[in-house]
Fold these 3 entries.
Entry 1:
Amino acid sequence: MAGAENQSEAGNGGQDSDSIRRRLDTLDGRLTEAKGRRPQPVDTEGRGRAMGQAFKLSIELVAGVAIGGFIGWALDQLFGTTPFLMLVFLVLGAASGIMNVVRTAKAMQGEPMPGHHLRTKTERDVTANDED
């Protein structure tokens, strides 16, 4: 009996391998089709760079307020003018933080800074100085 079972399995083995091969081929086709429909990967480097810039801007704003508040608190402790100088320096720190954020954001966009034309010498200025 054991020999008869082995013979029947050997006879069906050819049909089984053919059906398995067909199933694998159809599965391979379906996998290739599914990979084609998959969305393209997101640019993670660009996203990471943008998050880094956002963190940089937020830290600059918070640091300006914190440093201004600390300087005001320290001066209040020194001169005994509680809370007047702390409030003044908190406002000054917030203003400097906002200015830093605007300056950094403009630099990221590649725009010239406000007053840039006043800080740099133009060719006209150089030739005018040479003639004097």
Note: The CA atoms of residues 64 and 95 lie 8 Å apart.
Entry 2:
Amino acid sequence: MITMTEVAKKELQRLVEKEQNPQMALRVFVSPGGCSGMSYGMAFDDETQEGDQVIDDDGVRICVDEMSAMYLGGSEIDFVNQLMGGGFTIHNPNAVKSCACGHSFDTGNDSGSARSCS
């Protein structure tokens, strides 16, 4: 469903070790909004919810809720280390367009909810 590059996996392992909580996972989700219709979100979470898909990759866990999984299937999480704008990023094959900021996307079915980035 969702995969991670080796760079992203190592960065996530580092961050989870820093939290000192072996139950910690990266929750990846989408929500309506953004200039292209849907926005990506990521947060640390140590609890799974009913309906979550949990991906365990060499001890690194990713949680995705049911609704978000519909939009994120086949996506890859990467980590980019740049002077400006670095961090985790999602390469989503379901996105037919995304905005310049890289935080929102459109799958062709959700553009009606688009609003400008702020």
Note: The radius of gyration is 14 Å.
Entry 3:
Amino acid sequence: MKVGLISLGCPKNLVDSEVMLGLAHGAGHELTQDASQADVLIVNTCAFIDSAKRESIDAILEMARHKKDGACRRLVVTGCLAERYRDELMSEMPEIDAVLGTGEVPDIVAAISGGPEGRSLDRSSDRPNSAPLTFFRHPAPSTRHRTPDYIYDADTPRLLATPKHYAYVKIAEGCDYKCAFCIIPTLRGHYRSRSATSIVQEAQALAARGVKELLLISQDTTFYGIDRQERGALARLLRQLNTVDGLEWIRLLYLYPTTIDEDTLATMAECDKVCKYIDLPLQHASNPVLKRMKRPGTRQRYDKLLSHIRQRIPGVALRTTFIVGFPGETTQDINELTAFVNDHGFDHVGVFTYSHEEGTSAHALVDDVPARVKTARRNHLMRLQKRLVGGRNRARIGDRARVVVDGPSLDHELILKARLATQAPDIDASVYLTECDPSGYAPGDFVEVEIVAARDYDLIGRPLAVL
């Protein structure tokens, strides 16, 4: 059958989607990017916050219309929304033929090959285009809950959905932390690391296929190996990956402020392929808010850690994310967070407004910060970050740098989109290459450029030579 898949949410979810595509292809199914031509449609969902749940529901309903108007005979829903609301999805959305949670990725082939006819559309034919469903606000107790324990390995079939020159590698799954705002431990299970042998074998296979940049991901990448009583495992893994022929960049995402150790920092400083880039979600900088969030750090500890990282790894780029509007957050708390951002000059910052999620311990608190105040606080921090980054970028004009070409810009076919080693794909700013013939460069090419201009977060570069 022809199978189409929509992947929503984070890169960790994307890896699951790539595994499902690999399993489907290995079972003899044909893959298609045209939903109207698919016999089976899969929606791999996200359910981290309210907006992600709404996006997932909208995508399910959009794909469901192909059961009425297109070739689709089966609709399969997978991922975090499926793990969180399995019973509600099946009872309230008759369009869905199968639901697979995060621990049931290997069952995708059976779900694809189920009965030849979809379930009745009688109750869905008059649905509006936007999602009217609100069951995720007040879910009934699930009749089934099995802690997810699946994680793929180097032998698992996988079809990359990223450009050919970079790939995400999930080195662990799950989480053991109890952050008050987060549902991930419930959706993904306990933390479990893959073996270094499996990860290195996968890296070698990816490099042989032309992948030049590996992005190592998990819910807490610096916790890698600790669950297996293998302290120092991440540093050892990085040194092994640094020897893999064909790889140019190795990037770490999702680090945790309390599990970064000296061995990891030393390895990042010494290994030429490991990007000097640290993605460190701190969530806040006010001690009272951090305490209510059940985060283990403090403002003072974060100050020392960030200063130490910059000293230990000269030229390092720091990325972080913050949540504003957590219950009880005051103007004083926001002022402290603002000062923190101003003091440390992060290279990349993401700011999210707090989402009051059932199933988290924070749900027992009063969601007492109005939505408009949350949005105003987010906008305030992002304006500050834009001003700080803009000033630093203008100071870079005239510098020379090495970038990787990702492909043509979406803005103009004669402009190329590229990245520095200090910029991750999709989430960070880019370097746009002008004054060049785009046909002379391919995605994955490494190029020396001169920075000629700055545009807010982005840089403009002039290619000098292919490296």
Note: Residues 115-126 have pLDDT under 50 and may be disordered.
